[in-house]
Amino acid sequence: MSVEYLIVDRKQLNIFYTLESKEYGQLEADSRFTLPGDDRGGCSWGSGSYGIPNGELRAIRADFIDRDVPDTLDLTLSVWANEPEREKPLESDADTDFDTPDRTPNYLAEFTFTLTFDPYYTAQGEVIPVNTTFTLDGQTMTLAEVELYPTHLRVKLEDDPANTAWLKGLELYLENEHGERFYASTNGISATGDPDGEGTGTFWLDSPFFSQGEHLTLCITRA
């Protein structure tokens, strides 16, 4: 296994890696993170790399919800062969039923990498206060703030306690003065709940961080 590239900012980590084998034609890997102090709170991760051929880039994305990316963490990948008839487990498991869809694979190897991040990159991003109130179908909402990072953007909405309905979902995009549009994230997290309220609180969109625009307009098309 080789960790090839990292994309990291204050709130998101993307890891690109490869798996190689002279014996197995198709390897897969289950990942886990160990944060400093073994604290995993406020972090969500996943991979859409199932079925990627050996030798090609695979990706793991970690989103840090209410905390920043730490200075360092351990990445552990447990590797298994997507060839049950040829699988050679690290430990004998004679009772394994390969016809059971939810079976735990017999891991062939385990790799742990300690990743340390350049503080220049983990400092990238800013929180922009907005505090603008508007009305949606008779309900009062406040656009509290926008978090802008190289990897994504977050729009935080707050509802009024006097509202007679709570927000279940929202379709929205941002547009700059050049007509470029930035839509809701299609991979990974698209929204996170408001811990202090009933409705959805924060919406995740594609990032305009590297665009040339200086102004953004929030466009809500459906609530």
Secondary-structure element series:
EEEEEEEHEEEEEEEE
**Main pleated sheet:** 5 strands, antiparallel
Estimate percent helicity.
under 10%
Distance between the termini: 45 Å
Radius of gyration: 21 Å
Strand proportion, as a percent range, falls in over 45%
Q: What is the averaged pLDDT score?
A: 88
Tally of individual helices: 1
Strand order of the largest sheet: 8-9-10-14-13
* Structural class by sheet pairing and helices: mainly beta
Shape: elongated
- The low-confidence parts are 92-101
The tally of strands reads: 15
Question: In terms of topology, how is this protein built?
Answer:
Elements: E1 2-8, E2 12-18, E3 27-34, E4 43-46, E5 58-64, E6 72-81, E7 109-116, H1 119-122, E8 126-136, E9 139-148, E10 153-159, E11 171-176, E12 181-183, E13 191-193, E14 200-205, E15 216-222
Antiparallel strand pairs: 1-2, 2-5, 3-6, 4-5, 6-7, 8-9, 9-10, 10-14, 11-12, 11-15, 13-14
Protein architecture, described:
The protein is mainly β. Helices cover 2% and strands 47% of the residues. The protein has one helix and 15 strands. The chain has one helix at 119-122; strands at residues 2-8, 12-18, 27-34, 43-46, 58-64, 72-81, 109-116, 126-136, 139-148, 153-159, 171-176, 181-183, 191-193, 200-205, 216-222. Strands 8-9-10-14-13 form a five-stranded antiparallel beta sheet, with no helix packed on it. A hairpin with a 4-residue loop joins strand 11 (171-176) and strand 12 (181-183). The longest helix has 4 residues, at 119-122. The radius of gyration is 21 Å and the shape is elongated. 16% of the residues are buried.
